[in-house]
Amino acid sequence: MIGAIDKSALRRADGTRRVVITGTGAVSAAGVGTAALWDAVFAGRTCIAPISSFDAEGYEVSLAAEVRGFDATEHGLSKKEARRLDRFVQYAMVACDEAMAQAGLDMASEDPYRAAVSFGTGIGGIDELERGYETLFDRGPKRVSPLFIPTMIGNIAAGSLAIRYGMKGSCLDIVTACATGTNCIGHAVRDIRHGYADVALAGGTEEAVSPICIAGFSNLGALSKSSDPRAASLPFDARRAGFVAGEGAGALVLESLEHALGRGATIIAEITGYGCTGDAYHMTAPDPEGKAIERAMRMALEEGGFSPDDLGHLNAHGTGTLANDSTEARALVALCAGDASKVPVTSVKGTIGHALGAAGALEAIVCALSVASDTVPPTAGYAQPDPECPVSVVAGDAIRGVRQKVALSNSLGFGGHNACLALSPYEAR
Hints:
The protein is α/β, with parallel strands linked by helices. The protein has helices at 34-43, 79-84, 87-103, 126-139, 148-152, 156-165, 180-193, 211-220, 257-262, 291-303, 322-335, 349-352, 359-372; strands at 19-28, 31-32, 49-50, 63-64, 115-120, 171-172, 199-206, 248-256, 269-278, 311-315, 344-346, 375-376, 392-393, 399-400, 406-413, 417-424. The strands form three sheets. Strands 1, 2, 5, 6, 7, 8, 9, 10, 11, 13, 15 and 16 form a twelve-stranded mixed sheet that branches. The chain has a two-stranded antiparallel ribbon with strand order 3-4. The longest helix has 17 residues, at 87-103.
């Protein structure tokens, strides 16, 4: 397979290896599977609904973007796995099974020490944590499950995935709140780019639609209190008043281009750049100047050899909170030297809510499919422009038939974590 391509085309201008996506998998409020995610986002459909997993009576928030009717045993997990693994691990496994199958990656034919796992969660096993506390207080310390710790800790998703597929390279759980998924992907890209791995399974997972999380985010003032699913998650809209909690998992199989071509894999898109910065500003609020966000986007573009003029669209973090959206818009305007009107902007959070630690991975999948199919999906819920967000949000129908050199996918997390991926259509060059 490699003989048909100039060997120099396997490398970037700086001599490092090109990194491509060969498999994707998703569990989201849209359902199980990448196709369900893409179809919902492309159609601009909202998957937000009244909370069903617990009684929300007395809560100020009544809506969420849940993974409804999920039964892991219907998607390849055994009854024992479904019983012993918390939801965030189940979501991760189902998404990764899909990604691995799509990639056609046979680990029996791979060097396991050249296969890495970079898979994180923002919060971890919150369901198990709640159950453990209830047992401790109601029945005493001797009745707490001996598996409480390994079921609850956030790194158990990455560890369980490594065990499932026999991947013995670096195995990491990067936790950067809502930037987790993007940072995990970015780290995996660097591992492959600089020769530490040939293959990586990367992404994020979350199960945070739970009583304690909804109460905590609500009391923080971060969640939308709307009772109308179509008017709850409104990225960049003048009516926006908070995000809608979501859940699920996004998984990507990443490979060096040489490795992918060598085994005849189908390439979905290329990750051409990665930027990562910190605001060093506030525990929850973004720096209103947005300079660190701009810097992360610029880093991702420059790493791929692009300029802001090459930007085809931005898959924004776009949570629907007042400060986040205006700051992110300000950063894009600065990136584009004062005028971002020619850059289409989209956010999937109007469709699947904010999946926190899984958000960046799900959005990277959507962004990859967007550049691969020459489209930019719309932002569900967006209707009223806000002068504080002077960007061109895609509303109504998707933009079709636009070949893009590069698109960016942003993630911003509590604590000032900024992460950005640059994704491009795959070209053999």
